[in-house]
Specification:
By secondary structure, the chain is an alpha/beta fold. It is built from seven helices and ten strands. It folds into two domains: 89 residues, ATPase, nucleotide binding domain (Nucleotidyltransferase, domain 5), CATH 3.30.420; 153 residues, ATPase, nucleotide binding domain (Nucleotidyltransferase, domain 5, 2-Layer Sandwich). The relative contact order is 0.12.
Length: 316
């Protein structure tokens, strides 16, 4: 089974694939000070406690991270605890199949690239991915499957946190859909502003992006929602065409398959080259054997002539 890990700023999502199907998944908080050993203990505990898995056999690992310190520890965890398991870490040099049409491609978060990979695979282009996380990311994929840019907005939770900290009379409320837009209490008013306000933001930005992405036919753009907070809002957003909760993990699976297959192809080519080299060397050794055999026969013949001559009377 393939283990996929998507490390976000707030939460880390893990998914276990059996073929193309997510058979188990977990969401844990992202802790930038966890060590590689702690991560290994946590991961092994999650795998063992699952009633669905029995004895899971992790045959590959694919991961991406927007938190550098966690990425470092995950890399060490893979080395120490899963050294014999093929792993793909999304970073510069990894093949994704998605060209980055960005001023500085190194600035693009690896999770955004994975979303583009999965969106192109599942729905084709043009497409817009709306990822509801710590920030709300809008990522545009062209008809040719290129990542062409996007928009970043404050996420739902951090907006609520900021509001409750800066306004003394406004408390942090449960993120839930209110029964009406016109709130009859402070809690309802806050919930209305959060849920319907973000719904309006999504519709406004996605509609404008679609018009830029496909000016001739904006309706041809598929708008895909993903992320842990998406269910709070998507029912209020009329422009969302699809909801795919495991979009980033699917992108990781596709990237793993592409890169592991590429490694296997390179290994196979190297093996064939080595095999040809050995055959050529063997053929060269084979050509020299008859020459050495002929030389040995000639030497043996001359030794035999001398022996026969010793029995022959010398005349002269």
């Amino acid at each position: 089974m393939l283990l996929t890990i998507d490390v976000g700023n707030t939460n880390t999502v893990l998914g276990l694939f059996d073929g193309s199907e997510v058979v188990e998944h977990w969401r844990i908080s992202t802790d930038p000070v966890r060590t590689a050993d702690e991560l290994a203990v946590l991961l092994q505990g999650l795998l063992r406690q699952s009633a669905l898995l029995g004895e899971p056999d992790v045959s590959g690992i694919a991961l991406c991270s927007t938190v550098p310190s966690v990425l470092h520890e995950l890399r060490e965890m893979c080395r120490r605890y899963y050294g014999d398991v093929p792993s793909v870490i999304v970073e510069p040099g990894v093949k994704t199949g998605v060209p980055l049409r960005y001023d500085n491609p190194k600035e693009v978060g690896s999770d955004r690239i994975m979303n583009a990979v999965a969106a192109m695979h599942l729905y084709g282009g043009p497409a817009i991915v709306v990822d509801f996380g710590t920030s709300t990311n809008f990522d545009a994929v062209s008809e040719r499957g290129e990542f062409v840019g996007g928009a970043l907005a404050p996420g739902i939770e951090i907006s609520v946190d900021a509001l409750s900290r800066r306004a003394a009379q406004l408390l942090k409320v449960e993120l839930a859909r209110p029964s009406r837009v016109i709130g009859k209490s402070t809690v309802e008013a806050l919930q209305s502003g959060i849920i319907f306000g973000f719904a309006g933001q999504i519709e406004g930005i996605a509609t404008r992006m679609a018009a830029e992405l496909a000016p001739a036919d904006p309706d041809s753009v598929t708008i895909i929602a993903t992320g842990g907070l998406a269910p709070l809002v998507i029912d209020e957003v009329s422009v969302i065409d699809a909801y795919e909760p495991w979009l980033t993990l699917i992108g990781l699976r596709l990237t793993y398959e592409r890169n592991v297959a590429d490694r296997a192809d390179r290994a196979d080519r190297a093996e064939r080259v080595l095999d040809r080299t050995e055959r050529s060397a063997g053929a060269a050794r084979g050509d020299s054997q008859p020459q050495r055999a002929a030389a040995g026969a000639a030497s043996a013949g001359s030794d035999g002539a001398g022996a026969a001559g010793s029995d022959t009377p010398v005349t002269g």
